[in-house]
Amino acid sequence: MIVATWPALPSRSLQFQLVAVLMIMSGVVLMVCLGRPVPGIGHVIPPKYLFMPYTWTCIAIAISFDGGWQRVPEKWRLVYTKLCLLCILIAWGSHGVASGLGSRGMPFFETTRGGEIREHQLEFAAMQELRATIFAPLDDASDGLLQIVDINGNTLARQYPALRFPWGYEPQLSYMVDVLSDKPSHYQFLYATELVFPNPTVSRNLYKNVSPEFLNLIQTSEEANRLYSLPAILDSQARPATPSEIQDRPTGLTIIDAVESQQQDTSEWLIRSDGRAKIVLRYPEWKSDERFQLQMVIHSPQPTTDAEDTAVMLSFRSALFSGETKHRLPPPDDAGLLQIIDLQQLPSFSLSEKIEFLTIDLPHSGAYRVEHLSVPVDQSQ
């Protein structure tokens, strides 16, 4: 439209005005693109960055319309005006339809205004649920310092996808305390391992260090209990096994629902599974702050990925948590190295004073070889 109407602009000054408008538009767009780069087409640009480009675009369209109006014969100017208005109405109407589809979660329309509003509504609903589950009861329970357990951002985002930032950042619970609580300065967040910003206070004895009000909430509120036992993806370290790491054998190792199981020696088991086999570990007086480093070598009958339906899963039961939640173990190491998994990265494990038993699910059909399976006493205590 701009190219077609350029010769018809009535004066050189109007042509210069159009050039100036286009240069301003280009500058604003370039500034937004450089200052706020987007990771992809699905990224929503905040409206505050779009106001100026939209404004100058409308001015450019108005100047171009005027040039076209000057070029069209007088008897066709009314038709020309109506056609332009019709095109504008179609464009606005299409935007409204796309926005409506976006508000209903239709694919491809997430970046419309309706899609953005829907995203904010889901985010607000998730935050309101967190507020009602954790912070509202604690705000009412105490006016003093409250020490509570943080929740890993990845775990939280799997339960509440709306809390995940468009560029992939997954905020942990402590990151959002300013909007979740009326008394954000009254909270100190604890976690058994280091997390990303904001880094909570590291405590390896969570059940001893959390505030009584928080522990009472976990015991009495089913929603809070479920929140702190959300399924998680566990991290691990791999290294060759040493004699000192394989001496501590579980006294109550049981294999259930297996087609066949054989103990090859004191530290190796051959388990034939039809997809339902489980390994159950028990220790007398198992305290979570003494035995928390799960170590094992698992040779799977099939290539194991970290997909939900093929991953080796772990669960445990304590007096505080029922043991129904299954957590995803990392894929077995192909080199047969000893996997070391810190179970205290699970808030539910760290908050439990004593562990009744731990269960490992073997999902594939075929023969597993399990070596050096134990949860030894931590010698650094």
Automatic annotation (TrEMBL):
Keywords: Membrane, Transmembrane, Transmembrane helix. The chain crosses the membrane at residues 16-37, 49-67, 79-98. The keyword Transmembrane helix applies. This is Putative membrane protein.
